[in-house]
């Protein structure tokens, strides 16, 4: 008898793909076969998935981007993707289908609904995304990474937390070195695609810090490709030691070594920060659907592990003040690190895996 198949469907950003990767790692260890369906954007992240994972790029589209022609063609691409998923499922029937959101998850979730396969969604943010909202009443279970998560009336969610990759889990509550008069690290991350505001505001904020602090400081700054050169030049011109890259493949290591992290409030970033346990300054993306990044940040801020600054108030002056409040106060920094670690849910992947196996068992009884 062949191993049961888990079909994971996820959109093309790190926020969707990182928790999907965590679930894939765990289910493979439990003897399942795992198949991931995503689009070309999501395929950029698949190199970090276990090699046993079967990867399939599917046809899908979004109504949120592109011109008139692209938006008009979107329904036809989605239908083609659904037909392709139906054919694939008939040939190799999944025991459970899990959607992590994003338009590329539509074909698999729609096919699972048509074939009445056991299915669930995992919502990483404190507000359901558009695709997960569409399927919320059409799945057998909803796992919530952020709690509370705003759900439609009559829909029940289960708080699992946000799964983190094995490379993050291995560093759960790693020892924190307080800031002091010795080499220190500041990590700046804007989510999987960077953030323009962080490239505009963070460099001058750091350059404004006292020279006695700057001489010990090294910055790892994730910047969009189009911002990379100007950000690197600014740091260099102001005598700040900095490594500026569009993407850090060793992010868990850099986060572990950081005395402070300045970040967007994407669900995966908040999960990583809380599992590793690091003080952070969070600047939620103001245009996020339903202001979900503010919802993501609120729990960690209320727990005492982070400081939140809204985009409208994120100036070099206000940010420099908050950076100084952490790096110039070792006791407060340690308290924040401990609070972040207590807030973390390193068991999130196991909780999600348990939901998958429970669904599979129910499906076998039908």
- On the 0 to 100 scale, the average pLDDT is 93
Please tell me the CATH architecture of the largest domain by its name: 3-Layer(aba) Sandwich
Computed structural class:
alpha/beta
Beta content comes to: 15-25%
Description:
The chain has 366 residues and is α/β, with parallel strands linked by helices. It has two domains: 180 residues, Rossmann fold; 175 residues, Rossmann fold (3-Layer(aba) Sandwich), CATH 3.40.50. The protein contains 15 helices and 13 strands. The strands form two sheets. It has a seven-stranded parallel β-sheet with strand order 3-2-1-4-5-6-7, with helices on both faces. It has a six-stranded parallel β-sheet with strand order 10-9-8-11-12-13, with helices on both faces. Helix 11 links the parallel strand 11 and strand 12. Helix 1 packs across helix 15, helix 3 packs across helix 4 and helix 11 crosses helix 14. The longest helix is centred in the first third of the chain and has 24 residues. It is elongated and about 65 Å long. The two termini are 19 Å apart. The model has no long low-confidence stretch (mean pLDDT 93).
């Amino acid at each position: 008898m062949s191993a049961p198949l888990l079909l994971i469907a996820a959109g093309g950003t790190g926020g969707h793909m990182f928790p999907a990767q965590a679930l894939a790692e765990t289910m493979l260890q439990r003897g399942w076969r795992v198949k991931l369906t995503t689009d070309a954007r999501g395929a950029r992240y698949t190199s970090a998935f276990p090699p046993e994972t079967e990867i399939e790029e599917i046809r899908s589209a979004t109504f949120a981007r592109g011109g008139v022609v692209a938006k008009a063609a979107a329904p036809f691409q989605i239908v083609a993707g659904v037909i392709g998923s139906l054919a694939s499922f008939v040939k190799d029937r999944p025991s459970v289908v899990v959607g992590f959101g994003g338009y590329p998850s539509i074909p698999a979730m729609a096919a699972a609904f048509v074939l009445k396969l056991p299915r669930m969604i995992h919502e990483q943010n404190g507000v359901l995304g558009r695709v997960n909202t569409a399927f919320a009443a059409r799945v057998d279970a909803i796992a919530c990474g952020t709690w509370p998560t705003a759900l439609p009336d009559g829909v029940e969610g289960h708080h699992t937390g946000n799964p983190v990759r094995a490379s993050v889990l291995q560093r759960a509550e790693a020892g924190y070195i307080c800031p002091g008069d010795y080499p220190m690290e500041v990590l700046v991350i804007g989510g999987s695609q960077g953030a323009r505001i962080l490239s505009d505001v963070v460099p001058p904020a750091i350059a404004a810090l006292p020279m006695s602090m700057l001489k010990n400081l090294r910055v790892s700054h994730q910047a969009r490709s189009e911002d990379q050169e100007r950000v690197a030049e600014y740091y260099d011109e102001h005598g700040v030691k900095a490594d500026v890259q569009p993407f850090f493949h060793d992010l868990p290591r850099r986060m572990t070594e950081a005395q402070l992290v300045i970040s967007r409030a994407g669900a995966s970033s908040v999960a990583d920060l809380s599992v590793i346990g690091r003080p952070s300054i969070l600047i939620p993306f103001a245009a996020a659907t339903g202001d979900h990044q503010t919802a993501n940040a609120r729990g960690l801020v209320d727990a005492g592990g982070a400081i939140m600054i809204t985009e409208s108030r994120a100036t070099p002056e206000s940010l420099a003040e908050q950076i100084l409040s952490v790096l110039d106060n070792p006791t407060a920094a340690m308290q924040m690190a401990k609070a972040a670690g207590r807030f973390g849910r390193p068991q999130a992947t196991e909780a999600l895996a348990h939901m998958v196996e429970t669904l599979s068992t129910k499906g076998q009884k039908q």
